[in-house]
Amino acid sequence: MQDGNALAVRPDAGPDEDKISGSREKGLNRVLHILEFLHANQRAIGIGDLAKGVNAPRSTIYTLVRSLVDAGLLEMAGDGNRVYFGKKLYLYGMDYVRGNDLLRRGRHEVDNLSRETGETSELCMLQSGRYTIVHSSPGTRPFRISSATGLQIPLPWTASGRLLLAGFERAVIEDMVSEDDLVLPDGRRLLLDDFIADIATAGAAGYCVTSGLVDAYTKCLAAPIFSAPGKVEATMCLVVPIDTSEEKTGNLIALLRERAARLSITG
Amino acid sequence: MQDGNALAVRPDAGPDEDKISGSREKGLNRVLHILEFLHANQRAIGIGDLAKGVNAPRSTIYTLVRSLVDAGLLEMAGDGNRVYFGKKLYLYGMDYVRGNDLLRRGRHEVDNLSRETGETSELCMLQSGRYTIVHSSPGTRPFRISSATGLQIPLPWTASGRLLLAGFERAVIEDMVSEDDLVLPDGRRLLLDDFIADIATAGAAGYCVTSGLVDAYTKCLAAPIFSAPGKVEATMCLVVPIDTSEEKTGNLIALLRERAARLSITG
DNA sequence: CTGGATTGTCTCTTACAAAAGACACATGTA
DNA sequence: TACATGTGTCTTTTGTAAGAGACAATCCAG
User: Which residue among B27, B39, B132 places its CB closest to the CB of A95?
Assistant: First the structure.
């Protein structure tokens, strides 16, 4: 299971991940862990493995899974004893999209952007204190820089992260960013103070560019989408090769900012 | 939890079942009800109303909602004391789509179909014993025949329902279809035996057409999508004006069947 | 074949979550 | 002014759901 491959996904889940599996957990929390675990693994899981994965008694997971399957939140996967997300979750997810203008329009705009520029484009948001790629559109390059929807990456690794945190108190930021988050995939270590300074700069500039942070070959351009004056609700970003010319980069940033502004709610 | 969810199309019709809800319900069940309730109402709901809506103590709902909001399954809606679905549910929903070839390709095919024909097209599936519109694409008619994704309609009202039940035992069908389901929106009443006969006919024919069932102005054409030989996993359907000519209807059915077959897994 | 590992279903106990209800503070309206 | 209605946070009580464990049934490697 645990596929040592370090890049990106962090397995440990949730709101307040508790220390040594507090003996008796609330059923609802078990369920939340199950969902997180499935999301992290992106494939159907056997019930036994699921119990191991969320570190819970087998008997408990059996009963919970049965409830969830009956309710349609989970489905038994083809071969018989594995479970994965169910139709109900898809339906609820579509309800969310329908009720959320920003997401609906944002998805559309991101698709446009990647079609027009040929580059990978993404819509990003804070999701309970974590950076999340809410929608992404692949771009047309032969060497595709892909990152799946729903991927969660440490905030300091990204340009969008710097924009999303603009306007937060220092204490809040410290709270959201763990020590591990400051260590880049290649082992380099960011200083918290530098990161916080970056945030201020990005907020003031109204865009942010990072080079070679998550990997050595790409540059990330991001622009903020506001839900109210000063409040960054999301970001739109482009992932381009690191050797993209100054001029082209400048043009892309301008385009990105225009589109992001179009999505913003101007109070 | 036999009764599953009692909320179908009926807005709130009030006092149906909810048998002497043994006052002390499992938290998870409360949550499932909350989600169903939000889905049925398609808008943010105040916590007090939510408690009323799912017929649960206020204090319980407060704690559950807090958990769910912390987990990101729900979000507080703009004005402050209302909740609706959250980003997490959207992400899980996208995971479901990604893990489900049929749904992914089916959505695409439905979009194509409605663009090519100009008619409203839908992808439908059984969802824990209920007919569900999983994806729909509006069509280009001025008088739009729209039906929202996720809508659940009694099986006997639809052409797709007749196909989806093909191959089930009579007893199972009787179990899925309540007395109320047999009453059409205009008050007419279907006979269970007729309905079951329809199912057999539709299954044998490989398509189904119903006229003026859910409303007086439309005709519904449906074709089955198989996940294995004989097993109907979903249907694709077109909603057209009831006065569509025989010839055009025939052409559309042929098109529909071809596209549905393309989506089927031929064992 | 044998022994270990996994699966799905049961039963029983008690730790603890759901419920009841009281409270403080808003609103609105007669 | 009093009087109703809604909200959000407490505390206390008690019914029950989570958990431990035993079970038979598969499965698979050696």
Answer: B39
Query: Would you say the pTM of this structure is higher than 0.70?
Result: yes
DSSP β-ladder status, B74-76 and B82-85: antiparallel
Provide the pLDDT for residue B153.
86
Report pLDDT for A146: 58
Residues paired with residue B126 on neighbouring β-strands, in sequence order: B131
A4 CB contacts (<8 Å, ≥6 apart)? none
The C1' atom of C16 and the CA atom of A234 lie apart, in whole Å, by: 40
- The C-alpha torsion from A148 through A153 and A156 to A157, rounded to 10°, is -50
Beta partners for residue B45, in sequence order: B83
Footprint of strand C on the protein (CB under 7 A): A 22-28, 46-49, 58-59, 62, 66, 80-81; B 23-27, 30, 56-60, 63-64
For the four alpha carbons of A115, A118, A122 and A123, in that order, the dihedral sign comes to negative
- The mean-pLDDT minimum among A193-202, B50-59, B152-161 falls in B50-59
Compute the distance between CA of residue A119 and CA of residue A114 in angstroms, rounded to an integer. Answer: 5
Task: Please compute Rg for chain A using Cα positions.
Answer: 20
Residue at shortest CA–C1' distance from D9: B59
Residues of B in contact with A99 (CB under 8 A): 42-44, 84-85
Beta strands of chain B (E only): which ranges? 45-46, 74-76, 82-85, 120-127, 130-137, 152-153, 208-211, 218-228, 231-241
pLDDT given for residue B144 in this prediction: 58
The dihedral region occupied by B55, where left means phi > 0, alpha psi between -120 and 50, and beta the remainder, is: left
Q: Tell me, what's the pLDDT at B14? A: 30
Positions in chain A short of pLDDT 70: 1-23, 142-150, 266-267
Instruction: Please state, in angstroms and rounded to a whole number, the distance separating the CA atoms of residues A167 and B28.
Output: 37
Q: Which long-range contacts (CB under 8 A, 24 or more apart) does A45-49 make?
A: A45/A82, A45/A83, A45/A84, A46/A81, A46/A82, A47/A81, A47/A82, A47/A83, A49/A1
Beta carbons of A100 and B44 less than 8 angstroms apart:
no
Residues of B in contact with A125 (CB under 8 A): 87
C-alpha torsion sign, points B62, B65, B67, B69: negative
Instruction: Give every strand in the sheet of B218-228, ordered side by side.
Output: B152-153, B130-137, B120-127, B231-241, B218-228, B208-211
Q: How confident is the model over B223-231, as a mean pLDDT?
A: 88
A96 touches chain B (CB under 8 A): yes
